[in-house]
Amino acid sequence: MAQLIGGLATSHIPAIGGAIHKGKQNDPYWKPFFDGFPPIHQWLGKVQPDVVVVFYNDHGLNFFLDKMPTFAVGAAATYSNADEGWGIPTLPPIPGCPDLSWHLIRELIAKEFDIVTCQEMLVDHACTLPFKLFWPEHEIAPVQIVPININTVQFPLPTAKRVYKLGKAVGEAIQSWDSDKRVAVMATGGLSHQLDGERAGFINKQFDLQFLDSMETNPEWATQFSDLELVEKAGTQGVELLMWLAMRAALTVSASGVRKVHSNYHIPISNTATGVLALETV
Ligand code: DHB
Ligand code: FE
Questions:
Q1: What DSSP designation does 254 have?
Q2: 8 A C-beta contact, residue 192 and residue 207
Q3: What is the pTM of this model?
Q4: Best substitution site from 11, 12, 196, 199 to test ligand 1's pocket, by max atoms within 8 Å of Cβ?
Q5: For residue range 76-111, what is the model confidence (pLDDT) as tens digits?
């Protein structure tokens, strides 16, 4: 059976792509953010996942407001990158893992998740940037991916409780996949940020740190909040932290729990509180 080796999470601000492109990692503005990654690079070099299941949110590229699935699972052989207008460099297509995609899709539907299956799926910065951050030496990361899109763009959003259940079901499906592959789960987005409206620039450090701590010590903590409570606490785009919750829930299938490899928190990049986290299943 496949082995679920751990989880990764990072913010996905488009400006990061510009900084990587221009080689600004050591500039004073960027260094505290990029300094969060080398310990995780070391760990990834050791554990070498073959496949990464990525919880991310499309920002209006592949799904627009006229048709917005709550949960959508990619089942493509490759995922082409495009973006929704930020001007960051486009990356080469990322290879998919249709075998795991279809296994996940079958298992999720059997467990009553009414997902959309996508045999074609364009992916934006939320799906591509994290791979440049976690595998900076590679033009495309040496892994196959299964993208799972969670709607955090158009209200109503899925509840945190529902996202947690989805993540757990994904973890169970990975463990029951008949394969000798090593699989990691990844979350992209957050932490607290609001890009528009009266509260544009809103950041909530206290909430973010509590949330980060819950990833280690109390994974269900954030499931107490409704979608609007999450907006209040984390900002209209800070609700992207639902992706982190799904990633963490997937790891609860590890009977002996998880060990933190490394985390980092830095305010701000752009208008956003940034976080990075790696957890290893024990
Ligand atoms: C920013 C953050 C995001 O999550 C995003 O998708 C786009 C922009 C930002 O902080 O600039
Ligand atoms: Fe975003």
A1: S
A2: yes
A3: 0.98
A4: 12
A5: 999 999 988 888 889 999 999 999 999 999 999 999
